[in-house]
Task: inverse folding
């Protein structure tokens, strides 16, 4: 508990500000103390020693003056006069020492001739031994401190020892200490008030702001400019976050409660409410040049299913460069070709691209209208909306794929059921036809050619043969016909079919081929596959009554999990043959039924409706796939995928024209 408390304490702003300040002040004070103490102590010590040195010099000068007087009077050789002058000098020195509170002694030829105060001989000996001549030293003797110096007056051979009690300078030292103590007190007072005001003007404003934030309120601090600025910015950020949260909650509700068209309508209306602008969601065409409006909220009304060109609009840059576009004024002037912006004279515009899982642009979301400054929060919200729209696009795409897959499965199951029924009927019907053909042939043998009954028997025989051919096609659709599988090159199939259609098709139909030189080999019944390709070519001819282009292509392809064109296809390597025409094409309803037996769009008597079902059955029987791509007025393309056994074909690449 204590450890946690200390951890929290050390992380507080007061600790982080005041503690370093206090430590730095303490270190500075300590350094200052040491510096001043040394400086002051040194100053006092030098002052005291200088004073004693001056007094020592004064005594030396007394001796020197008296000696000069003797010399000037010419009495230096008069022993009596010298003795008198020495005595007078000693008296002067004694008076001087007493006046200045000095202790000491004068020694001449190792004999004391003067002693001031009761000083032990050993103390005097210590001074002579430990203190250098003409220097002042601080000595301690018998628990007391003394300043001592000694000098030598050579003319008279006097050795002078001067001693001053350290206590004589205690007043000076006390004054210095008091001044120093006063400075320390002033320093501490300044430090205290510095910490106090530092705490008041930094920690208090921050604490005030933090208290408001903890309560969930916007801080409203007033005082120091910097903290006012910080408080205002925090309040602004909190307001933006609250607004952003409210917006996102609204969008989240839309996301979980609405789907499809309702979702897009609610989103554009929500954008309109949030930004006070018009808004649009659109799907972008694969070439990135146009877009289909999914939902448009314009002047308070919803519009949809509009086609718009992106050229010359800000959306063009959004799609091409995959980045956001923000315009806060004169948008309609910058993009005069943007009809929607021009229609309402939109000043502001903001648009973002919508991406799929492959990072391809599949849509756009934008808002536009009156002049507006877009905040960072606005941009974040619009980006979130873009992600939601992308997710809905993805969901709808997946649902469409699932629906297509379900339709394919249902269609396959329906064809399987029809095939089973057709196969059963064909077998029984074929047995009946064999009897009809047999009896017709038998009767023709019994009836002469000129007999009136011979011609009707011939008609019966031909009709039965046509019915047998139809039965054969039914069995092919039901995948119950007889097959002779062998290694097969689809280029050979194309080469066998091309001469037939070249000779028989109208000259207005141009026939082209683009056959892969190293085409993989498949295993199949050559005659059955040729029959399928020929039948597809015949259908293409019938779809081009006024002429056109018929193309036959072959190529290799490998279907993987990532490159499957259709989900029902199996992964692997395939040799492909494709028949393409520029005919009338087919609508969606026709495409759904083209492989159903007896379904035909031709006039009565011009088609049995069994050509494509037979082709479907043959391809399925070869473990392949047949796919159709067609649209009204855009022709048709039938693509047959057959499993490859990876043997290469001969080099063939031709372009043949009918005629």
Result:
């Amino acid at each position: 508990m204590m450890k946690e408390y200390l951890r929290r304490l050390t992380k507080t702003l007061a600790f982080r500000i005041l503690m370093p300040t206090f430590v730095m002040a303490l270190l500075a004070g300590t350094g200052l103390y040491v510096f001043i103490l040394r400086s002051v102590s040194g100053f006092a010590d030098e002052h005291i020693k200088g004073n004693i040195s001056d007094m020592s010099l004064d005594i030396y000068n007394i001796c020197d003056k008296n000696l000069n007087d003797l010399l000037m009077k010419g009495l230096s050789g008069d022993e009596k006069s010298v003795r008198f002058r020495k005595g007078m000098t000693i008296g002067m020195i004694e008076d001087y020492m007493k006046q200045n509170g000095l202790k000491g002694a004068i020694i001449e030829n190792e004999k004391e001739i003067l002693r001031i105060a009761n000083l032990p001989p050993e103390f005097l000996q210590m001074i002579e031994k430990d203190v250098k001549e003409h220097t002042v030293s601080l000595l301690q003797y018998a628990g007391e401190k003394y300043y001592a110096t000694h000098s030598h007056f050579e003319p008279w051979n006097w050795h002078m020892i001067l001693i001053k009690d350290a206590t004589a300078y205690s007043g000076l030292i006390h004054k210095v200490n008091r001044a120093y103590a006063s400075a320390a007190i002033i320093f501490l007072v300044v430090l205290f008030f510095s910490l106090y005001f530092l705490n008041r003007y930094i920690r208090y404003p921050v604490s005030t702001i933090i208290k408001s934030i903890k309560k969930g309120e916007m801080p409203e601090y007033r005082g120091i400019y910097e903290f006012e600025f910080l408080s205002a910015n925090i309040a602004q950020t909190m307001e933006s976050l609250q607004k952003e949260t409210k917006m996102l909650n609204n969008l989240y509700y839309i996301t979980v409660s609405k789907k499809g068209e309702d979702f897009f309508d609610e989103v554009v209306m929500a954008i309109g409410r949030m930004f006070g602008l018009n808004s649009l969601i659109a799907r972008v065409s694969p070439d990135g040049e146009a877009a289909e409006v999914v939902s448009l909220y314009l002047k308070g009304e919803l519009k949809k299913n509009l086609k718009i060109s992106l050229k010359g609009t800000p959306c063009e840059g959004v799609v091409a460069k995959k980045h956001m576009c923000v315009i806060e004024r004169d948008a309609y002037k910058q993009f005069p070709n943007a009809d929607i912006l021009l229609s309402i004279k939109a000043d502001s515009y903001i648009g973002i691209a919508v991406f799929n899982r492959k990072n391809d642009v599949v849509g756009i979301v934008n808002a536009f209208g009156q002049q507006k400054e877009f905040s960072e929060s606005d941009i974040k919200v619009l980006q979130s909306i873009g992600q939601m729209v992308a997710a809905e696009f993805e969901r709808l795409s997946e649902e469409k794929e699932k629906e297509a897959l379900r339709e394919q499965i249902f269609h396959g199951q329906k064809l399987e059921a029809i095939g089973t029924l057709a196969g059963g009927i064909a077998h029984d019907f074929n047995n009946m036809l064999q009897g009809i053909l047999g009896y017709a042939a038998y009767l023709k043998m019994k009836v002469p050619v000129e007999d009136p009954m011979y011609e009707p028997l011939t008609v019966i025989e031909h009709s039965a043969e046509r019915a047998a051919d139809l039965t054969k096609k039914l069995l092919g659709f039901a995948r119950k016909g007889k097959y002779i599988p062998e290694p097969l090159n689809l280029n050979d199939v194309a080469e066998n079919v091309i001469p037939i259609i070249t000779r028989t098709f109208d000259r207005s139909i141009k026939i082209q081929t683009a056959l892969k030189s190293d085409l993989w080999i498949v295993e199949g019944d050559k005659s059955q596959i040729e029959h399928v390709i020929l039948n597809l070519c015949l259908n293409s001819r019938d779809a081009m009554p006024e002429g056109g282009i018929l193309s036959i292509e072959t190529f290799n392809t490998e279907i993987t999990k990532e490159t499957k064109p259709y989900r029902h296809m199996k992964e692997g390597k395939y040799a492909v043959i494709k028949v393409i025409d520029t005919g009338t094409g087919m609508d969606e309803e026709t495409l759904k039924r083209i492989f159903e037996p007896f379904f035909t769009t031709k006039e009565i008597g011009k088609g049995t409706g069994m050509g494509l079902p037979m082709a479907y059955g043959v391809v399925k029987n070869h473990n392949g796939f047949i796919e159709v791509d067609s649209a009204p007025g855009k022709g048709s393309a039938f693509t047959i995928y057959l499993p490859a056994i990876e043997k290469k074909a001969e080099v063939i690449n031709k372009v043949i024209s009918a005629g």
Remarks:
- The radius of gyration is 59 Å.
- The chain has a mean pLDDT of 78.
- Residues 376-446 form the longest helix (71 residues).
